[in-house]
Amino acid sequence: MATILTYLKKHFSEDYKITTYLLFFLFIGILIFLNHTTNIPTLFFRQHQDSPYIYGYYFLFFGFAYYSTIIIIATTKSDFSFLKKLSFWLTSLFAILLVSIRFGFLNHYSWIQENIAPEKVEFYTKVIARSIRFIIFSIGILVFYKLIEKHNKNFYGFSIKDVKWKLYLLLLLIAFPFILFASYQPSFLRQYPSIGYTGTFINKWLALVIYEPTYLLDFISIEWFFRGFLILGMIKSLGSKAILPMVALYVFFHIGKPTGEIIGSAFGGYVLGVISMYSKSIIGGIVIHMGVAFLMDAMAIFQKIDSFF
């Protein structure tokens, strides 16, 4: 824990300004409140999922999250210098485009409907969708790396050098009681286990064996994108200012999830971003993220264990 506290203390000394943080948390707080009370963002995207403009809608949505935070930072800190850097615009615009493609690409749904037996559609949709999301983020980052940043030897944080494994396992242990408590909440059990309904064509335990690895694998690409690409790929342009815009995008990324999970994404994303920035590695974030996701599914399965037999 001392290592993380050291990272946080260092980041605060470099980045913290009260007006910046107040406006930032007011900004994402308003969004979370509106989502919780009206569910407007989720309803809007559901209504327009077949629209030819869906990618543009997502681009505006995620761009609003990222660049609103950039405006807050630039104005409250009176620092506009990074806006003149081509690397900032190339990386940020590509990142917003990539996350928009991840959410907007729904072509596989119609293929599944046309080629998979009706009783198998829901299960295969989940497995294929998770796999495609992993591919979109991973291929996108690799293409950008190959074209723009071949000189970056860190590869956006895929480094196991000096990784403090015991620290991240301790963090998972600390998180466990909160996950256990959440597992007794109706809203949590409506969302988890993430596999949802599998139908009767396949044994539920076999379905879990097939689905869970694809589900957990997706978190590798998520950490690579948010804590690797948007932090370690942005340090040269934003320095310590890279954290808050990433957190804003990460919060918007979770819209549609239970409100508690969205709030947790803000604080969890911030801490994981700081760890990534100062350790120059995303491995710890991957361990924590995959571990929390697995525990959430495991606790939900425990609560619904009778339905698995």
TrEMBL record:
Keyword Transmembrane applies: yes
Transmembrane segments: 18-34, 54-74, 86-107, 127-147, 167-185, 238-256, 262-279
Keywords noted in UniProt: Hydrolase, Membrane, Metalloprotease, Protease, Transmembrane, Transmembrane helix
Protein's name in the database: CPBP family intramembrane metalloprotease
Domain of life: Bacteria
One Gene Ontology biological process: CAAX-box protein maturation
Species this chain originates from: Polaribacter marinus
Residues in CAAX prenyl protease 2/Lysostaphin resistance protein A-like domain copies: 213-293
GO molecular function: endopeptidase activity; metallopeptidase activity
InterPro entries with a match to the protein in the record: Rce1/LyrA-like_dom
